[in-house]
TrEMBL record:
Binding site for Cu cation: 77, 115, 118, 123
A GO molecular function held by the record: copper ion binding
GO cellular component, one term: periplasmic space
Keyword Lipid metabolism carried by entry: no
PROSITE patterns: PROKAR_LIPOPROTEIN (PS51257)
Gene3D superfamilies registered for this protein in UniProt: Cupredoxins - blue copper proteins
Annotated protein name in UniProt: Blue (type 1) copper domain-containing protein
Residues covered by the Blue (type 1) copper domain: 44-129
Transmembrane annotation, as ranges: none
Record InterPro entries: Amicyanin/Pseudoazurin (IPR002386), BlueCu_1 (IPR000923), Cupredoxin (IPR008972)
SUPFAM superfamilies: Cupredoxins
């Protein structure tokens, strides 16, 4: 195999500088807040209402300051705070009649969401921001929340699938 001399392939100082600047900019961007997308699904092919209406994904783990773009809060879907699963200092959220809405999460903690209309069928989700201090009592808080049995079951399966139950 014939090797080409490498010296002729050395990039010019200008290109090296440009690459360094670019990687620097990209580095700063990746350290910034991220935006995640949560869809609200109506799956007409699903068997039963418990599977028909759902958030996707149903669990998100964020860094403090990250954002979620909630999509499809239309045709009955909404995004509403579950008060029993909400950090004390965080303002409640109520999104309806919006194809998309972006929410920022500056407070660490556990955030529970339900759809106002389909929560009764278990349309609920969890967002965990940062490293919340109290997470081991999550199961008890779900039990105590004013939610339908289907929603409680959904939230409990989310935390057990994620290995968050003690
Ligand atoms: Cu809904």
């Amino acid at each position: 195999m014939v090797m080409k001399p490498k010296t002729s392939r050395l990039p010019s100082a200008g290109i090296v500088l440009m690459a360094l600047t670019l990687s620097c900019i990209l580095g700063i961007q990746s350290a910034r807040a991220e935006t995640f997308v949560v869809e609200q699904i109506t799956d007409v092919k699903a068997s039963g209402a418990q599977k028909m209406f759902r958030f996707a994904p149903e669990l998100l783990r964020l860094e403090v300051g990250d954002e979620i773009e909630f999509r499809n809060s239309i045709r009955g879907h909404t995004v509403h705070t579950i008060p029993a699963l909400w950090p004390e200092n965080a303002p409640p959220i109520a999104i309806s009649y919006k194809p998309n809405a972006t929410v920022r999460f500056p407070e660490p903690g556990v955030y529970g969401f339900k759809c106002q209309r389909h929560g009764v069928y278990g349309m609920a989700m969890l967002v965990i921001v940062g490293d919340p201090k109290k997470i081991d009592d999550l199961g008890e808080r779900i039990d105590a929340a004013k939610l339908s049995d289907d929603a409680k079951q959904k939230l409990k399966s989310i935390i057990s699938n994620a290995g968050l139950t003690p």
